[in-house]
């Protein structure tokens, strides 16, 4: 799922380069640049989590806590990406894909609405954190 929203990330970068505010591209605004850079860092961290899962599988082991960590992180990242996209796009980001004024073909709108459910699919974030606490940290069950 992590890379499922990569097109939104790339489109958001392009949008910030092409869209002007006060005569300057959004990409020149320090706050926007910082948010996009942070998303890129988080995207790469998520990718490394996925590589760890595949490495464990290649070694013939079950990636129980590794996959829980990757899923929990990826879900949180997708929610942050969607929220940041809506922030950068402003009120236009809330328009449905059918609107003639919607930016990015409605990707931000769709991602934002879908991202809330990601934390429930394939295990809630709380369950995944419990798996990490038990299997990786060796903490007792509740």
TrEMBL record:
GO cellular component, one term: plasma membrane
Keywords: Flavoprotein, Oxidoreductase
GO molecular function list: oxidoreductase activity, acting on the CH-CH group of donors
Keyword Oxidoreductase among record annotations: yes
PANTHER family: ACYL-COA DEHYDROGENASE, ACYL-COA DEHYDROGENASE FADE34
Protein name: Acyl-CoA dehydrogenase/oxidase C-terminal domain-containing protein
Pfam families (alphabetical): Acyl-CoA_dh_1 (PF00441)
Domain Acyl-CoA dehydrogenase/oxidase C-terminal as annotated: residue spans: 9-135
């Amino acid at each position: 799922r992590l890379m499922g929203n990569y097109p939104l990330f790339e489109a958001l970068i392009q949008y910030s380069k092409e869209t002007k505010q006060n005569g300057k591209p959004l990409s020149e605004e320090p706050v926007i640049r910082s948010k996009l850079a942070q998303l890129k860092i988080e995207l790469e961290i998520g990718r490394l989590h996925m590589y760890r899962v595949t490495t464990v599988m290649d070694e013939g082991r079950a990636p129980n806590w590794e996959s829980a960590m990757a899923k929990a992180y990826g879900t949180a990242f997708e929610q942050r990406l969607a929220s940041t996209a809506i922030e950068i796009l402003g009120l236009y980001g809330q328009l449905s894909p059918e609107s003639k004024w919607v930016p990015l073909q409605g990707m931000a709108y769709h991602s934002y609405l879908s991202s809330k459910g990601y934390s429930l699919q394939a295990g809630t974030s709380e369950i995944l954190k419990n798996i990490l606490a038990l299997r990786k940290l060796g903490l007792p069950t509740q």
